[in-house]
Design brief:
The chain is mainly α. The protein has two domains: 49 residues, Arc Repressor Mutant, subunit A (Orthogonal Bundle); 146 residues, Tetracycline Repressor, domain 2 (Orthogonal Bundle). The protein has ten helices and no strands. Helix 1 packs across helix 6 and helix 6 packs across helix 8. It is globular.
């Protein structure tokens, strides 16, 4: 018999998945708890049991997107190899852009519109994550493992380079006349890894060499 904690975790995951699709299709204003409940196949009361209101649910969806992006960089420390850590982070974000483009687009739309629907808990959590990662990158710089640069701007560059392939997929498809294949996405990933790591004065891992 499944434990209540496992059931709760699966139900939360189901709600977040349904909410992401509903917010992506309707925007924050156009989405409703009832629409999300209908998509999840759950009573509205179940949604409100896990998330007290739409804004809290929305912030949870946004946090789940950012957590997915950042998972491979969460536990990286100054003692890790910057070449491996950054290449893995970039490649993972590129794969997420390939497999979950709507997640990226939903987040981009919110940020472009001023991030007015994100609560302070999300904003504070995001700031803390970035500050922690900046300290790691600065530690690599201080140890002479990579070129001296602003860690904050490096993170922004990684985000823009990788999320472009999701946020602007329509432009890519129009220019090419067809979506990128998996192999072409791999080539794009290697290109982004090479550009960023070489700009940091780092050696590119063999699997990403062009």
């Amino acid at each position: 018999m499944k434990s209540s904690s496992n059931i709760a975790a699966k139900r939360r995951s189901l709600i977040l998945s349904a909410a992401l699709k509903t917010f992506a299709e309707n925007g924050y204003r156009g989405a409703s708890i009832q629409k999300i409940a209908d998509r999840a196949g759950l009573p509205k009361a179940n949604i409100l049991y896990y998330f007290k209101n739409k804004k809290l649910l929305y912030s949870a969806v946004m946090q789940s997107i950012v957590s997915m992006w950042n998972s491979t960089f969460d536990s990286v420390t100054v003692d890790d190899c910057p070449s491996t850590a950054l290449a893995t982070y970039i490649a993972d974000k590129m794969e997420i852009s390939r497999l979950h483009p709507y997640s990226s687009k939903a987040f981009a739309i919110e940020i472009i519109n001023g991030a007015n629907n994100l609560d302070n808990a999300f904003k504070n959590w995001h700031v803390e994550w970035v500050e922690g990662r900046k300290q790691v990158i600065q530690g690599w710089i201080n140890a002479g493992k990579m070129k001296n640069m602003n860690p904050e701007f490096l993170l922004y560059h990684i985000w823009s380079s990788t999320q472009h392939y999701a946020d602007f997929s329509a432009q890519i498809n129009n220019l090419r006349g067809t979506p990128l294949t998996k192999d072409e996405f791999s080539e794009a990933t290697s290109t982004v890894v090479n550009l960023i790591l070489k700009g940091c004065g780092l050696t590119v891992p063999e699997e990403f060499t062009l």
